[in-house]
Amino acid sequence: MSNIIKAFINIVNHYQVNITNVTQGNNRANNMGEGLETYIKDIFANTTNETNEQVKLEKLSKIYSYQGNKNNPPDLMIRNSDAIEIKKLESKNSAIALNSSYPKAKLYANSPMITKACRECEEWTIKDMLYAIGYVDNSILKSLWLVYGDCFCADKETYERIKNTISDGITTIEDVEFTQTKELGKVKKVDPLGITDLRIRGMWHIDNPNKVFNYIYSFDDTKIFQLACLMKKEKYESLPTEDKKAIENINNNNIEVQDIIIKNPNNPVQLIDAKLLTFKV
After folding, report:
1. Which of 6, 14, 121, 233 shows the greatest Cβ crowding within 10 Å of its Cβ?
2. Which residues, including other chains, have CB under 8 Å from residue 209's CB and lie 6 or more apart?
């Protein structure tokens, strides 16, 4: 089974990447977003240098239980492990567009926002949500955050309260027809002829980790590439002992493993023990 430490070490070994040159099977990626998704998929599966397409497909199938699409999060699910959402940025500090999907500390199998295929790809009820946020400049991957949702997203009730309040308020409008939807609302037959519909969608954004965690991490413009992995200490401790030893004993002066404290996303005056792994070169 793959995990964030294995991915960290693979990234250290394969960090100089032209995202548009990353291949999907025999085809070069059509855009930077597509290329970043393929890169992340390869990093966790350790298939970056695999040239035999059949072997690669078999390895990917063993590591992942689900691969999503742009409209249905998550982008990937590691079998018996984390869900991964991949976001590409063209500015190092820009906010992250989540579109109709609110920020997720965890991913739940009963969420109406996921597909039946995602829900049934393996036996699961809740998964840790890992955000892979890549900053790409002129097709080159310059930095990457691997940060767990429970380090900077509040519990789902915080976002659902807003979403549900808006949806409930929309239904109080008189003389229009409403239909069930996964969005904030859908109003049918708005006009007297009954020919106009209105879709009401949420457009969620969340701040860049460079801004959210500027009290523990500083972006270094002099570096060719930089990687930051952030997780709660309890998550780090749950990972295999051999993987923790591998990263803690690695002989590379550009790597740092730190015990830190971060703000609780549900109550910022409370602090949480966390682990920060960084690589800058």
Report:
1. 6
2. 133, 145, 147, 152, 217, 228, 230
Tokens of 68: 């999503």
CA 11 remoteness from chain centre: 16
Which residue ranges in the chain fall short of pLDDT 70? 23-32, 176, 178
Q: What's residue 28's pLDDT?
A: 56
Q: Do residues 1 and 79 touch, judged by C-beta distance below 8 A?
A: yes
Query: If you compute the radius of gyration of the chain from its CA atoms, what whole number of angstroms results?
Result: 20
Under a CB-based contact definition with an 8 Å cutoff, are residues 215 and 261 in contact? no
Tell me the pLDDT tens digit for each residue of 146-184. 999 999 999 999 998 888 887 777 777 777 676 777 777
Structural contact between residues 41 and 50, judged by C-beta atoms closer than 8 angstroms: no
Cα separation, 70 vs 162, in Å, equals: 23
